[in-house]
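Example record

Each entry pairs one chain with its bound ligand, adenosine-5'-triphosphate.
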Amino acid sequence: MNKQKVLINCDAISKIYKKGKQEIKPLQELDLDIYQGEFLALMGPSGSGKTTLLNLLAGIDTPSGGRLTFNGTEITNFSRRKLTKFRADNIGYIFQLYHLVPVLTAYENVELPLLIQPMSGKERHKRVSKAMELANISDRAGHYPNQLSGGQEQRVAIARALVSDPPLIVADEPTGDLDQESARKILELLKYLCTELDKTVVMVTHDPNAAAYADRTLHLEKGVLKEEADVAH
Ligand SMILES: Nc1ncnc2c1ncn2[C@@H]1O[C@H](COP(=O)(O)OP(=O)(O)OP(=O)(O)O)[C@@H](O)[C@H]1O
Ligand SMILES: [Mg+2]
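Structure tokens for the complex follow.
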């Protein structure tokens, strides 16, 4: 991990949800620096705001207060339109339950994010093939999601997250639905993306064994972050 370059700076960011008269404050004045090339694990009890934080980092949602800076650009007050472009350029999102499109093959699922970008068919093919190779799932290119195992589906989802070559990959419990061996392969792949390709990965997990792959683990409790000592792996 290169601790020189801060990719994301959270400066006192808060999130408030309003439901009628009720206010829910999952994040309160949270400060956090995330470094380029870092593999960061985020733990904490259910409802502690992990997904909320991930969505802010990924530009899916905007903070209610504070400042969020990504690669030197403040994105706190980006419009929806600007955020959409920001996400397409910078973010790969991986979900617990893969979220693949069932009527598309593995290859077509990975290709999907590129279809909204101006690009020749040849260039697109090159990128899809490369992402599938990285995720070690090229041999299943023609399969539909229901013809794949859970671990294979997640590798397709990772290829899809990688295909636009984003600096940040966020993953919300990416191994939550997998057996140990499939989980291990996914975690090794995420680690590889950080160490070899200088990607930054922020992963939410409930599993301490999964968190052990990360460079750093943060615990979110009642909207406040607690840091564990840096552990080298
Ligand atoms: N869109 C929303 N509107 C209102 N409240 C919300 C919304 N999204 C999340 N919340 C509330 O914010 C709090 C944090 O939710 P969040 O999904 O971030 O938790 P989490 O740590 O990811 O939990 P889990 O481990 O169960 O996934 C919860 O109390 C939740 O009910
Ligand atoms: Mg969650």
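The domain at 6-99+168-227 is CATH 3.40.50.300 (Rossmann fold).
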